[in-house]
Design a protein that fits this description.
The protein has one domain. It has 3 helices and no strands. It is 65% helix and 0% strand. The two termini are 21 Å apart. The protein is an all-alpha fold.
Length: 86
């Protein structure tokens, strides 16, 4: 897998868009993880700015895990993992 040293969010995103020699399924999984991570961090950041409430990091990680698993199970119903294995 090729990597890009992320100097910006765009660079980091490109790391998960270009194939770098990985299969399409693997790229889809990496993209889902990137999207879920970015989305959850964005939501928690906005909640902190608006409501002044911080969120424990483990709660954010659990939300990322849950969201990415649901997205991947919807895209790949035969994914050989259950939620606890994810």
């Amino acid at each position: 897998m090729s990597t890009i040293i992320p100097f910006s969010a765009g660079d980091h995103f490109n790391q998960f868009i270009f194939d770098g020699g990985v299969s399409k399924a693997c790229r889809s999984i990496l993209q889902a993880l990137w999207y879920a991570t970015t989305w959850e961090i964005w939501k928690k950041r906005n909640n902190m700015l608006v409501n002044g409430k911080e969120c424990p990091i483990l709660q954010v990680v659990d939300k990322i895990k849950s969201l990415s698993f649901m997205w991947l199970k919807a895209k790949f119903p035969s994914l050989p993992l259950n939620y606890h294995g994810w």
